[in-house]
Design brief:
This protein has 44 residues and is an all-alpha fold. The chain contains two helices and no strands.
Length: 44
């Protein structure tokens, strides 16, 4: 669903993933669908 976050990742590594819509958007949309919020796509 969402990218795996390892406990040893640096802030710089995490900051490289979070702004990437191609990585985060599908996971966020899937999570919303699982919570019954599929009709309201999450804002950034």
């Amino acid at each position: 669903m969402l990218p795996v976050v390892e406990t040893d990742e640096t802030d710089e590594e995490w900051d490289a993933v979070v702004p990437d819509e191609t990585v985060m958007r599908p996971g966020a949309a899937d999570l919303c669908a699982r919570l019954g919020l599929a009709a309201a796509p999450p804002p950034r």
